[in-house]
Write a structure and sequence with these properties.
The chain is α+β, with helices and mostly antiparallel strands. It has 21 helices and 13 strands. α8 crosses α9, α11 packs across α12 and α13 packs antiparallel against α15.
Length: 552
């Protein structure tokens, strides 16, 4: 007992700020683990693990009989394993069966992107002369038809949950709250089932994962119990994705399906026409609170005081009136990192700067530069730590910053680059000041997400619906009998769509074809510039609790 008291004493010393070495913390943790095995959820053990994560001391996969995930935190703050910076961390395994690491959001995103690129190369998606490999075998084999299966063990359920969170990585990045624990069910014939409602703001969707049937379903949310009177569904129809393949292949398929449904972009929602008049006022007030309460918490100010300061800032007030209150009035106030990156690109590069005054020779060249800017901003937007304005500025002002063909971007503007650079720098510095001194990182991310989700950026690369939009343009063109641009008139529409994942790398005539379909005629199909499919899905907020209040 004395040893256990001493171990807990180490924790108290750490909590009061006393200097305690990593070795002493780890020894106290290990002693508690050894002496109190039935109580793996012991709060002292968990708190010691949290301190250790904060110092970059984490277990190896097989440590503590492989059961350390039971009490080590899912989230924490400390040095990221990959970049070494002190940031908010999540316990993460990029592939099923890989060891856990504690990584920041940026490094998790970078790893997902790296794995996706590896998968593309392995699948030979862009090399039509190389046959695609056979589908990978799932680590979870479906049972033979008509046979029953034993109930899964605790470790089985944990492995299913790990894989489900991996499959939903794109939704996690796009701002959806994944549950700490999944609801579960088991049927001897159908197998295990994991399910939950995922939320982003007031928008919900239901997820069901059947590991043995090897399917993942994204379904409309229906508030049948009446517990969520202010909610709305983010889907109208169910989406079922086969997830038999292991690794990144199935993850990419889920991301593609979610992207096509608009789930990876900011939500567009407005009050339903059937709602009572007071619903519009309530909707507006809720939106204001969701945007600025985070800023008030960051500044440790009452919300009215924060709002007063915001309205007294003439420039910020103008942005709120035009972007948030007018062009983006239907954009839900959520943190959506990719939309925020578009907001930075649109607001600090194309708008409020001299870029448009020095418009490049062609729209295709301008589009290539827009994509290059968006690539830069995406690298420096984190849903937890916010926007790294200085890194964006340094990258955009770097004389070596170039298009994929090696052309320095500053050279494209000639003598006008001096004015472009000065105005872009001023805009980035302005937002950096507002972020750090007035709004805080979360409110700034919300405002940038709204700014990147207006009609101005509907057809921009970088949104989750991008490939789905391109598919509609291609299908409409081929249905109308229009020829694809060379070399895709020979290679086919699937290869064109695959290459449009990186549209700045395709030949200029191909990108030009996508923007404005040639030979389409006045009543023919439309390219990106005019296609109706670029408009995002529209959702409706219909608070029945307000309606019920007025019923007799």
């Amino acid at each position: 007992m004395a040893e256990l008291a001493a171990a807990r004493g180490v924790l108290r010393r750490a909590e009061t700020g006393e200097s305690v070495t990593n070795a002493v913390l780890l020894a106290a943790h290990d002693l508690l683990y050894t002496r109190v095995p039935p109580q793996l959820g012991d709060s002292s053990l968990r708190r010691l693990a949290e301190f250790l994560v904060g110092r970059g001391v984490v277990p190896k996969p097989g440590d503590y009989e492989g059961r350390w995930w039971l009490w080590w935190p899912k989230n924490g703050r400390g040095p990221c394993r990959d970049c070494g910076k002190i940031r908010s961390l999540a316990r993460y395994s990029a592939r099923f069966g890989n060891e856990y690491r504690y990584l920041c959001a940026r490094c998790r995103g970078a790893e997902r992107q790296h794995i996706a690129q590896q998968a593309d190369r392995l699948l030979g998606r862009r090399l039509t002369s190389v046959p695609a490999p056979a589908p990978l075998t799932s680590p979870i084999e479906a049972p033979a038809e008509g046979t029953s299966m034993p109930s899964p063990s605790g470790r089985d359920w944990e492995s299913y949950a790990i894989r489900l969170e991996e499959l939903l990585g794109a939704l996690d990045w796009a701002g959806f709250d994944l549950p700490e624990e999944w609801d579960t069910d088991f049927d001897p014939q159908e197998g295990p089932l994991l399910f939950a409602t995922l939320w982003r703001g007031d928008g919900g969707l239901d997820v069901q994962y059947n590991p043995h049937q090897q399917t993942l379903a994204l379904q409309p949310f229906d508030d049948v119990t009446g517990d969520w009177p202010e909610s709305y569904s983010l889907l109208e129809d169910s989406i079922e994705v086969p997830v038999a393949s292991s690794g990144q292949q199935a993850v990419t398929a889920v991301a593609a399906a979610a992207g096509q449904a608009g789930l990876l972009d900011a939500t567009h929602v407005q009050v339903a026409e059937s709602a009572p008049p007071e619903a519009k006022q309530e909707f507006t007030l809720r939106r204001i609170r969701r945007i600025f309460q985070l800023a008030a918490d960051f500044r440790q100010l009452p919300l009215p005081d924060l709002l007063r300061e915001v309205t007294e800032n003439e420039w910020l007030n103008a942005y709120l009136e035009w972007v948030v209150g007018m062009t983006g009035q239907d954009v839900a106030p959520d943190v959506v990192p990719d939309a925020a990156a578009l907001g930075v690109a649109a607001g600090c590069w194309r708008n409020n700067t001299a870029v448009e005054d020095h418009h490049l020779d062609t729209d295709v060249l301008m589009a290539r530069v827009n994509i290059a800017v968006t690539r830069i901003t995406r690298q420096h937007v984190c849903p937890v730590d916010g926007i790294d304005w200085d890194s964006i500025k340094n990258a955009l002002m770097d004389p070596q910053w170039a298009l994929p063909d090696g052309t320095p971007i500053c050279s494209l503007f000639g003598p006008g680059w001096t004015e472009v650079a000065a105005t872009v720098t001023a805009e980035l510095d302005r937002w950096r000041h507002l972020d750090h001194e007035v709004l805080g990182p979360q409110t700034t991310l919300i405002l940038m997400s709204i700014g990147g989700s207006t009609s101005y950026t509907d057809s921009w690369w970088g949104q989750g619906r991008w490939l789905s939009i391109c598919r509609h343009v291609i299908d409409d063109a081929t249905t109308a009998g229009l020829s694809l641009p060379p070399p895709y008139d020979q290679r086919g529409p699937d290869d064109l769509l695959a290459d449009l994942d990186a549209p700045d790398e395709v030949p200029a005539p191909v990108l030009g074809w996508l923007i404005d379909l040639p030979d389409a005629g006045v009543h023919g199909p439309r390219g990106l510039r005019m296609h109706h499919v670029t408009r995002p899905p529209q959702h409706y907020w219909d608070p029945y609790w307000l309606t019920d209040r007025n019923d007799p």
